Amino acid sequence: MSDPVHAVLLGGSSVVLAGLASAANAADTLSRPEQIAVLVIAALVLTGIYLLACTVWPYANCPRCEGSGKSRSPGGKKFRNCPRCEGTGRRERLGRRLLRKGDR
Ligand SMILES: [Zn+2]
């Protein structure tokens, strides 16, 4: 886990989970619709953080070639463009694709 975005997301979600846990302690005072609202708001906040991260860091390494953009021969000396990413070595993240669709 060297990806700083995922580290931030994991850190953020654990903070939210801790908040949810303390909210759960107070859940006796919350009515059922209010509990659902808390969950929905937490999900929206996490989604917002993820989409923001996807605009700042829109790409991840291609899973097939791990970012090299090359598909190597068995000997490892010859290569062609990776068919998955067409030689770019990068993969567009899901959030980025969703945002582009939203622009249209
Ligand atoms: Zn690739």
TrEMBL record:
The portions of this protein that span the membrane are: 36-60
Keyword set, alphabetical order: Membrane, Signal, Transferase, Transmembrane, Transmembrane helix
**Gene3D superfamilies (alphabetical):** 6.20.20.10
Which GO terms of the molecular function aspect are on file?
transferase activity
The record's InterPro entries line, in alphabetical order, gives: HSP_DnaJ_Cys-rich_dom_sf
Span of the secretion signal? 1-26
Name by which UniProt lists this protein: tRNA(Ile2) C34 agmatinyltransferase TiaS
- Species of origin reads Kribbella solani
